[in-house]
Amino acid sequence: MSLEIKNIDKNYKDKKALDNITITIEPNKIYGLLGRNGAGKSTLLNVINNRSVPSSGDVLLDGNTLLDNEVTLNQVYLMSEDNLFPSTMKVKDMFKISEQFYGSFDWDLAEKMLEEFELTKKTTFKKLSTGYRSIAKLIIALCVPCDYIFLDEPVLGLDAAHRELFYEFLIETYETSPRTFIISTHLIEEITNLLESVIIIDKGKVSVAEDVSTILETSFTLSGPKTSVLAAVKDSEILGQEELGDFISVHITGQLPDNFSNDISVSPLNLQNYFVQLTKRK
Amino acid sequence: MSLEIKNIDKNYKDKKALDNITITIEPNKIYGLLGRNGAGKSTLLNVINNRSVPSSGDVLLDGNTLLDNEVTLNQVYLMSEDNLFPSTMKVKDMFKISEQFYGSFDWDLAEKMLEEFELTKKTTFKKLSTGYRSIAKLIIALCVPCDYIFLDEPVLGLDAAHRELFYEFLIETYETSPRTFIISTHLIEEITNLLESVIIIDKGKVSVAEDVSTILETSFTLSGPKTSVLAAVKDSEILGQEELGDFISVHITGQLPDNFSNDISVSPLNLQNYFVQLTKRK
């Protein structure tokens, strides 16, 4: 039961926000959806979740369109900056309405999260701080019974200890009942270990859709004297480079060159740096 | 011309949000205002900037109260999640109104920031992505002529490259025209080098108000066999500790013990870890 995003375009008057986006999202995997500010991530998430109408293209779940289709739409959930409830509503009532709408709700997990995050469920949403608003929305996202959960900037406003706690709850619920999570975040370093695959959106297009392990196994930085390094990488796909005098660091993707002189040092490129190199703007 | 926050209390029906907060904020320094989610940071910033009325206490600028005083209020600026303008307004009109209100506006810096962040000033605010909304508000905060600029979560939703760019602009404008910045953020590691002092708020109270250099010079982690380490730190102020079998790491603040056995390794504690240890909840 894959989620297929097919040839999605989204045009605004003066801008092509999404340009022929085609991705297949598989069941029971954790994805990272990465992109620079303004790349189109939130637009894509809104289209997939029927909150915004695409200019063309379709989103199919098990072959059935999601767009304007209440039955299949019940299988996807989007947590984003938007608040779906009146801000005067109490947290516990937000939970109850989510249960009514989606058919069930993981109350055990919700209670555990309320306790660990020290959030009182009698509080009205508007009285919560920025961080605690995110926490209330995160609890709902992890407790609804949907197969595809999209999290747009889930840790916005969360302190470091609360971010860590959320990642732990995510792993726990994913292991207990596998489903698909698609997480859009700018804090790439701290989430790398959770992700199985990443989709990188750059200027409205899919730039990379790949398993994280593949990216990490095929991305390197070669550093050393300029002449040695440039000779070594002459057939490589270069992501970016930094120079300092006669010294150079070149970031490459693909195979590590077979032979290179021993004045070159090689280090792996982490996902955050891979992303930064790939989406650098000239 | 210091900003004095004197005995500020803020009580809600069921909660003491701020408990006798007294701080002096000096001119021409960059402060970090740190605290766990829900500690009271935003409440404090709203009180100082007259957006929320304290239950008791006062805020004085050069001896004159700030609260409900339009003349002195013109010297402080708060950038926060709140949007002060109608969301249908264009970015350039937000700049113009800020100029009218505060008397002048650094248009050179604004144009430079628009260009480097690739933000079009003809765009209406509501059409901007989360990250670009932060960017528009940040430009205003750096371009108004106020002596005290409060930034509540300034990099919310910004990608790593844009966060770096913002920090560079902040240093540049601070060096060109020194004034006071008070920055509240959960991304402590990446901002440590910018800060001269920190104020840590914990459960509505001031827990630490200290120069960063002093904190870094007097915070250590001692690691090694449990018996050796516990003997070494017996007179120290302990922030926290982690144990693994017979091995222990103890985080201390204050003087490094004079004599300790050579099976102990000592490392400095960075600001992020200092904060985490200090504000851990039981």
TrEMBL record, chains A, B:
UniProt keyword Ribonucleoprotein, yes or no: no
Keywords of this entry: ATP-binding, Nucleotide-binding
Entry keyword annotation includes Transferase: no
SUPFAM superfamilies: P-loop containing nucleoside triphosphate hydrolases
Residues of the ABC transporter domain: 3-228
Gene3D superfamilies found in the cross-reference section: P-loop containing nucleotide triphosphate hydrolases (3.40.50.300)
A matching Pfam family: ABC_tran
Highest taxon in the source lineage: Bacteria
GO terms for MF: ATP binding; ATP hydrolysis activity
Name under which the protein is recorded: ABC transporter ATP-binding protein
Native species: Vagococcus hydrophili
